[in-house]
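Input sequence (354 aa), recorded before submission:
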Amino acid sequence: DEQEFFKRESTIKAPKTNKIIQTPFPPPQSDRTEDFDIDIEQLKQLAKQEAGPLIIERYSPSEKQIDYVLSTITLTFNQPMIAVSSVDDKMNTEDLGISLTPKIEGQWRWTGTKTLQFEAKHRLPYATKYTLRVDKEHCVSAIEGKLDEEFFFEFSTATPNILQFSPYGTVSTLKPKCFLLFDQKIGMNDILKHLRVVHSDGHTIQNEELELVNETTAKNEFESFLNANEGTHEKYVAFTFKHDLLKATQYTIQVPIGCPSAEGPLKTTSEWSASFQTYEPLKIIDWCPNIKNTWQSSLAPGHSWSLTFNNSLDHSTINKSLFNFEPDVNGLGIEHTQGNDRQITFYNNSKANT
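Predicted structure, token format:
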């Protein structure tokens, strides 16, 4: 069956206003005169009455002791200090009686009408005591608000801290190279003068018996430490000993109270120390087969033997003439154990029941 195409009802038109008023464009000039006679001084006085005293609501840093990298200082007031249009303008903090001492390279700028920020070119130097001061006579807000009293705040950046030290454990030489990496610039000679090296019997090695390691050697010996930390130039000291240390002795490196920094006048207020051990005289500590060892009291004929020492060996000095076997062993060969520089392996054609 054929049906007529379905078509929905049309949308109802929006209602029209009861009366359409025609106005000319552009509109004719009005005969009315506006009264723009505003008393600016009266408005200023009104704002001043409502403003109240000027207050520093927040400041950063707020800690007395700063143990992190600091590159900005901020002051936030409770009243607008400048017009919005002046935020990007350069300013002279002396006009507001604001000072940071000692002076460092950087720039003060407004980050809003109420917040003033100092941005150091790099960062605030370590080991330095800073004073942030705002003079109540010169610091006046844009609406004439004044501080009731001078703002005065002191804070200090960190004194030298050791980030890395080497060596630890047992050293394989009697003239080890020691390395200390600091978190800030230091004077190598100044640090060397303050270091103390004490061995286990309480005897202190004189500083005259220490000597700095040259830069090339230090970079080769301690490359992993230097590459793992950025900007390590002038932040480390590497030294060695003019004379051999005692064997089988523990030595402690001490950085005492009063150690200086190259960045500021403040000195360390606590002691730091780390220790290492010199190797013992060479001796055999284990062997295989070993009748005292239940698991390795004997071996099958022709099976390799081994000797284990307490120290690393200079394998270039090891040869068969150093060892004597009774009875004689045929097919004797010596090899340095792979992955163990303290062990020697003996290959042989040993006989049974011998």
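Checked by second reader. The radius of gyration is 41 Å.
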